[in-house]
Amino acid sequence: MYFFLANISFLDLCYTTSTVPEMLINIHNHKRSISYVGCIAQLFIFLGLGFSECVLLSVMAFDQYVAICQPLHYTVIMHSWLCQQLATVTWIIGFSNSLVQTVLTFLLPRCGQYRVESFFCEVPAMLQLSCVDTWINEVEMYVAVIVIKVIPVGLILFSCINIFRAIVRIQSSEGRKKAFNTCGSHLLVVIMFYGSAISGYAYMAPKSNSAKLKGKLLALFYGLITPMLNPLIYTLRNKDVKRAINKLLGREQEQGWNMA
Fold first, then answer.
1. What superkingdom heads the lineage (predicted)?
2. What is the CATH number of the domain that holds 225?
3. How many CB atoms lie within 10 A of CB 28?
4. Could you report the per-residue pLDDT of 175-227, keeping only the tens digit for each?
5. Are 181 and 175 in contact, with CB atoms under 8 Å apart?
6. What is the value of pTM for the model shown?
7. At what angle do helices 173-201 and 226-236 cross, to 10 degrees?
8. DSSP characters for 102-126?
9. Start-to-end C-alpha separation, the chain
10. Domain limits for position 216
């Protein structure tokens, strides 16, 4: 569990770092611009990390399924080599898909249009700059959404259903509470991330200013708010993490008193 939590924590850190610093610079300088190469790099990294998180959330759901439904076989099934392989495949799938979408997006002619209707470079906003028909790109993007987002959601729901059925059979109330907390935290993260990300693609070609604003807010939510909340959701409901934080704070306080 902690191996995958470390992966998603590092991923979320990189996820926000790919967009937030540039966003803050634009706000501070009132410049609101980004170089062409910077836009390509931002789109590639942001997409790669986003798709990787989609796959990683489904892998974490499988890990929880094995831990709760097959507890006696957990160490045999989820051995360290398998966990490393799953994490590696997750990153490869995410950035391979990102490479394809980034190349297809920037091959489109712009015809002098370089005003991005978003807080950062993302595929829906970049497609709006093209002066040719983008239906091929839109079909490819929706296929990628189905493969990378919808299918993992189905796997996560399948795991959650089986986990819920296993929890109901647990006789210990403490065991049921612990299992519910673990599954509940993961399900909350999945709902926030997938819900906002999939909804954001509904505003791929907004016709009104209100639709554009909704698209920007959704992009900001799944690109900034959700990665920021993920560590809090996972850690605040974990007894081991809370115990480690209390121990760390206790040591710092003790050192402060000794220094005084």
1. Eukaryota
2. 1.20.1070.10
3. 8
4. 666 667 667 777 777 777 777 666 555 545 555 555 566 666 777 777 777 77
5. no
6. 0.77
7. 180
8. HHHHHTS--TT----SSSS--HHHH
9. 40
10. 2-259
